[in-house]
Amino acid sequence: MKVEVSRDVFRLAEVFTISRGSRTEAKVLTVRVTDGDVTGRGECVPYARYDETLDSVTAEIEGLPERFDRAALQELLPAGAARNAVDCALWDLEAKRAGKRAWELAGLSAPGPVITAYTLSLAEPEQMRASAAKHAHRPLLKIKLGTPDDMARLEAVREGAPKSRIIVDANEGWSAEVYGELAPHLLRLGVEMVEQPLPAGEDGMLAEIDRPLPVCADESCHDRASLPGIDGKYDMVNIKLDKTGGLTEALALREAARAEGYKVMVGCMVGSSLAMAPAVLLAQGAEVTDLDGPLLLAEDRDAPLEYNAEGVHPSAAALWG
């Protein structure tokens, strides 16, 4: 079995900004696992927030033994970007080898299109109002916030898109005091959910307050091992393949989280259609789907995912799975 990893860069349609910084391109790693004459592909996006770089993740992948399967992979690599790309490549490989789709191998029902959020980049209020108006036809908008001056941004987006559903992602950017001040206004403006308002590890106050606005764990929840640490603090978990280390653990986390009463959000890093394709299977039945990565790109993979009024559609076999 041969495992190859390469770097790909996709230009963004416009500058994308969150509370941690801005970017103009998506840098990803593509993994190809070849066994005989069959090759499977997967993609990951190393994330500096989790001490991942293109070099460090490449080294993890290149350090794998000559032969292993998906079950062994769960022990060979920790949850994270490296395991994600390899795990998803193995799912693709297994599907091609079996002449079936990945959802069949996973014992899932045939997938359909899923409405996805569209993310508005962090910017000055006027710019965010204009962006919201441009995308006001979309049913669900996700606003990137996470600064002490977010009230004007919230008002601007609601003015620009008065009929869209809105969710908010603070990317750990608020203090407990700022969140306490903003929460009533989030409700007033019809925000349906707030994602990771406080830094992971500093979110204890969420267990001490009423939460009329559902709170979703992102940086605080990576895989099943994270669930005990978020007990009582959150109402929803954001499952991302780059955090769980692939579709295998993501499916297990989804089941475990639901069993403990959490609602499910399926999210993504800014990557190509190859990164989103496995997540579309995971997003079936999720309360919130945020798989808009390809919509933020100026270029994409061959046989890209289809996005239309019905949402993001499952991948063709030519892309993945």
Protein model, in words:
Strand 1 (2-18) and strand 2 (21-35) form a beta hairpin. This protein has an eight-stranded parallel sheet. It has a three-stranded antiparallel sheet with strand order 1-2-3. It has 321 residues and is an alpha/beta fold. Helix 5 packs parallel to helix 6. The longest helix has 18 residues, at 81-98. Helix content is 32%, strand content 23%.
Number of helices: 11
Spatial ordering of strands, largest sheet: 4-5-6-7-8-9-10-11
Class from helix and strand fractions = alpha/beta
Shape: globular
Tell me the number of strands. 13
Q: Largest beta sheet, briefly?
A: 8 strands, parallel
Summed over residues and divided by their number, the pLDDT gives a mean of 95
Provide a short characterization of the protein structure.
The protein has 321 residues and is an alpha/beta fold. Helix content is 32%, strand content 23%. It has an eight-stranded parallel β-sheet. The chain has a three-stranded antiparallel β-sheet with strand order 1-2-3.
